[in-house]
Amino acid sequence: MTDTDIKAAFARVDLERFAPRGQERFDGPIRTFSDADGTTLSAISDRTFLRWIVGELGDLRGKRIYEIGTGTGYLVSVLAQLAGSEGEIPLIFGCEIIPDLFDQSQRALIGTSGVRVQLGDWVDRLPELGLFDVIIATSAFRGIPRLLRQALRVPGGLLAMPIAIPGGGDCFTVFHATEEGLSTIDARMSVSVPTTGSMADEDTWYIPLEKLVDPRPGSFVHIEIGQGFGHPVLDTLGFRSYLFGAEPKFHAVNLGGERTFDLRNYAFGLIDGERRSGALYHHHDMLAFGDLGLECAGALAAHRERWKTNGRSDLSQVRYHIPWAAFDADRLPSGYVAALGG
Which residues have CB under 8 Å from 49's CB, separation 6+? Predict the structure, then answer.
């Protein structure tokens, strides 16, 4: 499927049917729904960004596609142009949890064949629909839910979704499903609306460091809960000074002595959960602790320099593989995304 095919599909869909009046010619993201506090809960993404997403998905003809959070229905309408149809059997499915948006999508999609959008939480709707070749979400998730893995065709399925970075922003990542797990195809840093529904308030996949640090000298970092990945170095202190899933047996690290370290100022690091060792990076300073601390510091510095040399300075440049075994947890913490060497 060429760029010309993709541009033609977008051109055949009249944005005016899906956008609020007066915004149909706006090139950037278009807000379609906000809550009482003014927080944007639904938007039509920048069309250039949507074309990039669709372009990463390859040939969509005859593919079963599911969109989480269809909003007013713009993207599913474009996808219908690219997937084609199989008689009366729909190929494009979606779910919208906000009733007003669902009603708008039903009106806007009149005359669009091959599309079925349901009202409700995708967590309840998706499992009853079978396997999909492509699953897309344009709202940011804090991890990769196991339900998505279970609904994705293996091998060959594609998962495209933004994974939130604690502290702000997200990394929109396109994954390819193999027999062994999920592998990244491409990614871009982005800013997406937050996900809603039953997955919206699931905070157990990370612990803010400021809640863990005892401010007294000689303090410990106490890790109350956590889900490991079976690889100690991949259990990482990640972006924005948040702790991502540590080994459950990794209970405490002595960071103290005679002084207190404010871990909120340390933005990136490596943790070896088995040896209670690690290194934290902040600008040009590095804090190493434990008997493998210097080794972790060296590995961290080597990766950092390698990323600089290759011009890889953000999460979207990292390529990694997630084994299916990691999905034994309810959801895969997005800390895995930030894992060095993953």
Answer: 172, 188, 190
